[in-house]
Write a structure and sequence with these properties.
Blueprint (H helix, E strand, L loop, with lengths): L1 E6 L9 E5 L8 E11 L1 H8 L8 E2 L3 E9 L11 E5 L9 E5 L4 E2 L6 H21 L7 E4 L5 H12 L3 E6 L2 H9 L4 E4 L5 H8 L5 E6 L6 H5 L2 E9 L13 H5 L4 E3 L3 H4 L3 H17 L8 E4 L3 H9 L7 E4 L1
Parallel strand pairs: 9-10, 9-12, 10-11, 12-13, 13-14, 15-16
Antiparallel strand pairs: 1-2, 1-4, 3-5, 3-7, 3-16, 5-6, 6-8
Helix pairs in contact: 2-3, 2-9
This protein binds NADPH dihydro-nicotinamide-adenine-dinucleotide phosphate.
């Protein structure tokens, strides 16, 4: 018997309920995984609130680490007892145990703990594709990264610093500014108090940055556009403050022939080869210590609602996990 968080209506964190679920043996191509640590991501709050609509009732969660309990027919390269992790596939990671298609699973190497994997798989592969494939950042460049003390942000700061990239980090409080500086931010902007675009212009001698990585959305989108140099790339990859309103293409022209993209992880780990390359790149950084994860915020699975409350109230820094 598995226990799983499910919700039958969209709304606040209180819609999340813990239920018993019978899961049965794995079907062809599937594995049964017993979770040891579960990643909580901002996208989970968009799905729960209805910003990203889902058929209901639904499970929740896209990321976890655990142990393979059984494999179905046709599964090669995985056996009971293997330590695995995933970020993607059907929702349902907020559970003690589940069935999942084996194609989403990667084996965890020695030196990457289950908790680290549950913190890092989704957020770390996101950083990998954003800085290496959406906009291949070059050493010596200066880039803008919003919400830099968050889960994705902390990994990005370390990853980019290790590449010799100068990061202008924005954060919501002085305590978070300290975290960003300690993780390698070259400059920190308190974006609720300061004029972001003006500061970016001042820091870059008027030129602006070649790329802005913006997951805050509504509140920062325009400042990000105004921070770019001509032919710069606006990477809008999240909506923590709400979705970005419609934009006329001429707004890009006015600011110097800008590029705009709205990427999502699923499209960058769409093939098995991409998933393996992205997770390998992340595991290399975790094992060589260039990316270290701050102690995560840990909650029992049954307290998933409280984890959501804290994440949405900006009370967390770094990663958040649930423990079954
Ligand atoms: P974070 O830990 O970064 O939490 C979100 C942060 O956003 C908060 O801590 C807060 O930081 C900031 N924020 C700004 N405005 C608000 C607001 N109105 N309400 C709440 N928070 C606000 O979360 P994650 O690391 O899980 O995710 C970061 C972002 O990246 C999310 O938007 C997520 O959806 C996106 N994402 C996108 C992916 C993709 O492929 N497109 C994949 C993974 C994540 P502060 O206090 O400093 O302002």
């Amino acid at each position: 018997m598995s226990q799983a968080i499910v919700f039958a209506e969209t709304g606040g964190p209180e819609v999340l309920r813990l239920q018993n679920a019978e899961i049965g043996p794995p079907g062809p191509g599937q594995a049964r995984v017993r979770h040891t640590a579960i990643g909580v991501n901002f996208i989970d709050t968009y799905q729960r609130s209805g910003l990203y609509p889902l058929p209901l009732p639904s499970g929740l969660g896209s990321e976890a680490a655990g142990v393979v309990e059984a494999v179905g027919e046709g599964v090669a390269g995985l056996a009971p007892g293997d330590r695995v992790a995933y970020a993607g596939g059907p929702l349902g990671a907020y559970s003690t145990e589940r069935l999942i298609s084996a194609e989403h699973l990667v084996k965890l190497p020695d030196g990457v703990s289950d908790e680290t994997a549950a913190c890092a798989m989704l957020q770390g592969m996101t950083v990998e594709y954003l800085v290496q494939r959406t906009f291949p950042v070059q050493p010596g460049q200066t880039v803008l990264w919003h919400a830099a003390a968050g889960g994705v942000g902390q990994i990005a700061l370390q990853w980019l610093s290790a590449m010799g990239v100068h990061v202008i980090a924005t954060v919501g409080s002085e305590a978070k500014a300290e975290i960003a500086r300690n993780l390698g931010a070259a400059h920190v902007i308190l974006y609720r108090e300061e004029d972001v675009a003006a500061r970016v212009r001042a820091i870059t001698g008027g030129k602006g940055v070649p790329v802005a990585f913006d997951s805050v959305g509504k509140d920062t989108f325009e400042a990000s556009l105004n921070s770019l140099s001509p032919r710069g790339m606006m990477v809008t990859f999240g909506n923590a403050s709400g979705p970005v309103p419609a934009l006329a293409p001429l707004e890009l022209t006015k600011r110097g022939s800008l590029f705009l993209t709205r990427p999502r992880l699923g499209d960058y780990i769409a093939t098995r080869a991409e998933l393996e390359a992205s997770s390998d790149a992340l595991f290399r950084r975790l094992r060589d210590g260039t990316v270290k994860l701050a102690p995560s915020h840990r909650y029992p699975l049954a307290e998933a609602a409280q984890a959501h409350r804290d994440l949405e109230a900006r009370r967390t820094t770094g990663s958040v996990i649930l423990l079954p």
